[in-house]
Amino acid sequence: MLERKTFAPGAGDESYKPVRIEVFIEEQHVPPEEEFDETDRSGAWHIVYFKDDVPVATGRYTDEGDGNFLLGRIAVCKSMRGTGLGRQLVDAMIEGAKEQGARCLHISAQVQAIGFYEKLGFSVCAGVHDECGIPHQKMKRELEI
After folding, report:
1. Nearest-angstrom CA–CA distance, 88 and 130
2. CA of 58: how far to CAs of 5, 17, 76, in Å?
């Protein structure tokens, strides 16, 4: 059974860290100093899914102003991939951003995940760029008000 928790900016909960360490630092070799930032501590809402009290998926979203929200640091542990949890996580992030007044969502998606985000209503809106040695593309999704 999965449990979901949402933490508001500044909540001080860091239960998202083990998932991001596993996925981004260990699997994808993102330097730790690039992975964690001040936005984690004071500017982002975090959603964390737990299985048997162990964090297995996480993502964050931030208010960029004027109804624009940025979704990011979306990660699912290898043991939970292919279960639909990634979609469930992004859907929860979208709903959370809507509750905070989002009208347009932005994401910097790893190129290999573009198809996943397209299925969730996002569309590519910029060319390929590099983030920590990983090709990404900016995507967006307008929300119905």
Report:
1. 27
2. 10, 9, 7
Domain residues for the domain of 53 are 2-142
Q: How many domains are there within the chain? A: 1
The model's pTM is 0.94
**CA distances (Å), origin 130, targets 1, 3, 110:** 37, 34, 9
Nearest to 16 by CA among 63, 45, 116: 45
Block mean pLDDT (10 aa), the chain, length 145: 94 95 96 92 95 97 97 97 97 97 96 96 92 93 87
CATH number of the domain that residue 92 is part of: 3.40.630.30
